[in-house]
Amino acid sequence: MNNILYLPTRYFPSISGAEFYFQRMAELLTTKYNYGIEIYTSNAIDFKALRNSSGKILTPDNKYFYEVNRLKVNRFPVNYNISNKEILKILKVIPSYNALNLHDDVLEKIIRNGPYLGDLLDYLLKKQDLNYDLIHTTYFPYFNCVISLIIGTLLKKPTICTPFFHFSNPRYTDLKVIDLLKKFDLLIVCTNVEKEFLVQKCKIQPGQIKVIPMGVDYTKFQNFNKNTLSNLSFKEKFFNKNEKKYKLILFCGYKNYEKGALSILKSIPYILKKIKKVYFAFIGPSTVAFNRELSKIKKLEKVKIINFSPEN
């Protein structure tokens, strides 16, 4: 099993855990174990671009568009200007799609999440040397998962999905949409919590699920110069003069449901009942949902929030 088709939703320079997961695996398997891996993905950089043309995309003039760390990456544009009805019409003439027996309402929910990659699907279906031993995709519930199943069914080859469940977002707990996961030969999950949910709530067979925890590359934290940070103090720079000894709750990352940013915002009223002298700092790109919740929380009396994003 040496030839693998990778179908991630996005790829580096998109930076979330799923992208790093696929990138790291691809680089290790090709350099150390002599696997042949072909990567096909969208040109989206941020989550917005998966379903909205105003999102950030990677263009061919970017140095990472065609290649990342000597690995070829095949990026296809997201098709935004096409209706669900048209997509259904296209898919229903593909025998390997019909063999999946997906309900239309399930597919429509997946299409809503994006990215609809009609050009990529058409390319793979027409590809003359379509010869893979395995198809691996991430993340759920996005349309690239459907493409993986279509190609896997066509080739009669095993399909794997690493769904990356985030239970704070209702998108991941829609039992109708989870029906898609039952179509895969194997699911790789990061925690036993995910496996328990899939087995108990979704009635997926335990043998169909493998728990492989995410690793941490500690060398990334050993290579920075500690001396350059020794004279820096976040509290000295950003806290009010008489509040330098206040506690700090810090969030760094993409401010979405999945990373926990909204959960922290919603917990602030309860934290303030216990701890009055505290700052909440958020560093990273914002989302519409985060900004909406932030506007509500800022109305609380004596709440202290520092919010940094690429825009400010």
Short overview:
Pfam families: Glyco_transf_4. Residues 120-218 form the Glycosyltransferase subfamily 4-like N-terminal domain. Helices cover 34% and strands 17% of the residues.
The tally of domains stands at 2
- On the 0 to 100 scale, the average pLDDT is 90
Query: Radius of gyration, Cα only, in angstroms?
Result: 22 Å
What portion of residues belong to β-strands?
Answer: 15-25%
Count of alpha and pi helical runs? 12
**Structural class estimated from helices and strands:** alpha/beta
Q: Helix content range of the residues, please?
A: 25-40%
CATH homologous superfamily of the largest domain - what is it?
Answer: Glycogen Phosphorylase B
In spatial order, strands of the major sheet run 3-4-2-1-5-6-7-8
Low-confidence stretches: none
What is the multimeric organization of the chains shown? Answer: single chain
Q: Choose one word for the global shape.
A: globular
For the biggest sheet, the summary is: 8 strands, mixed
Instruction: List how many beta strands DSSP finds.
Output: 11
Note down, in words, how this protein is organized.
This protein has twelve helices and eleven strands. The protein is α/β, with parallel strands linked by helices. The chain folds into two domains: 3-211, 3-Layer(aba) Sandwich (Rossmann fold), CATH 3.40.50; 225-308, Rossmann fold, CATH 3.40.50. The strands form two sheets. It has an eight-stranded mixed beta sheet, sandwiched between helices. Helix 8 links the parallel strand 7 (186-189) and strand 8. The mean pLDDT is 90.
